[in-house]
Batch of 2 targets.
Target 1
Amino acid sequence: MRLGGMGMAPELMVLDSEAEVAMAVARRLAATVAQMPTAVLGLATGGTPMPIYKALIALAAEKRLSFRMVRSFNLDEYVGLSASHPASFAHFMRENLFDHIDIDLARARVPNGVAADLGAEAASYERAIAEAGGIGLQILGIGANGHIGFNEPGSAFNSRTRVVDLAEATRQANSSYFPAGESVPGQALTMGIGTILNAREIVLAATGAHKAPAIAATLAGPITIDCPASALRLHARVTIICDRAAAAQLP
Ligand code: PGA
């Protein structure tokens, strides 16, 4: 199904359950790597990708898929958290994916949130993506406020990798990943919306009723910086895969 007025109208797939969404996205990732063993993947963290990676690990084992030559770039990382912090996205990626496939960790990059010079880290991240030939397939979740990566509402559509302030709602939504008594950092390093839009192909996954307003705004609202994910309608190859609950407020 294709929706939306102005813009290019992402392809929309509405599936019955979170498990089906996870399997559909995992299949896209697996097919990309099977077709091109040197694929450059853009990866995401959070509750939505967790079952996606679980399904991908199973598919990789079943199909004897090798990630040895794959390169990956994660969307974002908290400022101030090192890779050994249990709530860091670098740690999430090892625990939920990298430790269970044969990817070379030297080719799997996550922004360094403890770099002495965060501006230099952001510039080097952009350079590394360009030197890898750009991202082939970018996986995205979506925040309840419409954010993609940590590009909160108000982020420019041409933004690049940079340090951003996190919205209070985002810090609250992510607080469950942090040890009791520890607060969520106020800042993150994130690929920009412009960085994301440079990917050749984008798949956004959304599950649960709490994502329904953001999915409706993304596909059927105005294309505006107030809903960062609405920028995806400016891209020619986007698939949005959601469960029924997340699609419930679409016209
Ligand atoms: P979630 O986060 O998958 O944990 O809901 C998505 C996001 O904030 O991009």
Target 2
Amino acid sequence: MVNKSSGTKKIILSMLRNSDSSVSGEQMSEKLGISRVAIWKHIKTLKELGYKIVGSSTGYILQPDNDFLYSWEFDTNADLYMTYKELSSTMEKAKEEAEKKCSPFKTIIAETQSAGKGQADRNWQSDKGGLYFTTILRPQLPSAYTYLYTFAATAVLSEVIRSLYNLEAEAKWPNDLLINGKKIAGVLTENHSKGTKINWLNLGIGINANNNPQLSNAESLKNLCGRKIDRKELLTTFEKRYKATIETSTPDEICNLWKRNNQTINSRLDLKSGTGECFKGIAIDIDRTGSLLIMQSNNKVKQALFGDLYIKE
Ligand code: BTN
């Protein structure tokens, strides 16, 4: 269900989008049964939100730009989307919403983030054009299984990117998505558990969609495809497949899905652990805790729970 004000914006936008000429305030006010002043206020809000609406003596014209992710832009489940022009981080807003007992799959989106969070307390550069969102999940699995939600995310996202853009996207342990060795997306989860029961698990994803990443080891989908990415299509396709995957798969099935879509296993790599230690070897598998198993030159297997990986071949 769309709330009243969102519904009004949706109708105004569809009138503007479906018209070859300008649409007068009077036409809108008749269709919606609200005053012309109210229409003017909605138009003003839409402009502030980034829509390029130009007023003329005959009415309003919307300049074509459909890359908006506000709730009224979604045909189904519009009430699940909360979109902001800027947030410090979608993780913070999602935490507030999760604590307010919102329904699962509520998704917080920001056009830009002033303090985007990455793994290991790093900053996540969040320029305009990227896709930055956090989806609130309420898993029924014990908290030891949280890693499965990250594995499912990078695996499903790699499949979605391959199917939508024909690009060879692959998951890199533990939370990255790469194309030709360049980072396209990263996943960050935060959760709150009581005992072993997860109260909420927030899945944050940053995708270099239409932005131009400044780091040399990152790239955007737009640059790789040579065309602008429809972020709404990318988001809704991902969410639909992700939901189906986590609702119907066993832990083993999710691990196997990740294994089918990863580039890490069988690679020679260096791992810098959280404590700063360095381990070298060949990644041979993941285990039931989500750890990466690395065969070292002394034939001992290192179980890595977390760390930075430097893949060599
Ligand atoms: C990483 O690779 O280090 C994880 C990056 C996760 C970034 C996303 S963007 C949306 C959400 N909000 C944040 O502040 N971080 C995550």
